[in-house]
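Explain this one:

_____
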Amino acid sequence: MELLEKVQHLFGSYGYSVLFFGLLLEFIALPFPGETTMAYGGYLSYTGKLNFSVLLILAFLGTTIGMTITYFIGAKAGLPFIMRYGKWFLLKQDKLDKTQKWFAKYGNGLIFIGYFIPGVRHFTGYFAGIAAVPFRKFALYAYSGALFWVVLFLGIGKIFGPQWNAVFHLAHQYAAYIVAGIGLLLIAAVLYRYRKALAARSVSKPAPVRQRQK
């Protein structure tokens, strides 16, 4: 309740700008309850106090700008600099190690799903830059993941209204599984949609020519 009261106070004092600046600073690894703030902002749009479209645009911009800044910091400064001076920016060593392991395991896909993993999303931009992921590829994963993330948590408040808090805790706990499930459904839908074209391509593929034995 104390956290929620702080979020309520922030919206009461600063309105829409809370989402933009709060999420931007969160992705530079400064402490900010981004998901709670988005869900509550969605609830305020449910009550008619705020406009959902404006919240969505500001949340998306704050998130993507913050991620882009961290990408270029990682690309320019490199891992030794981050590990040596990161503590001054609240980039703690244990979280850096955790993100490095996740990045080694999931590669560029972590840029997308990292939003839904506590303690990881704040560092994926840095590691994408350190790993020299091409900016276009980074932007594809980071910006699409950001859109999915902000729509999910703003939507919780907008759709569920007074029950947003209970649904939020469930979504926060199982967000990574929800995203993985939706991703699998989308892949299945794409494969089903283009099943005939894929089948035709496999049939029309010429068989390898065997050489005659002398």
Summary: The mean pLDDT is 80. The two ends are 84 Å apart (CA to CA). Residues 42 and 155 are 6 Å apart (CA to CA).
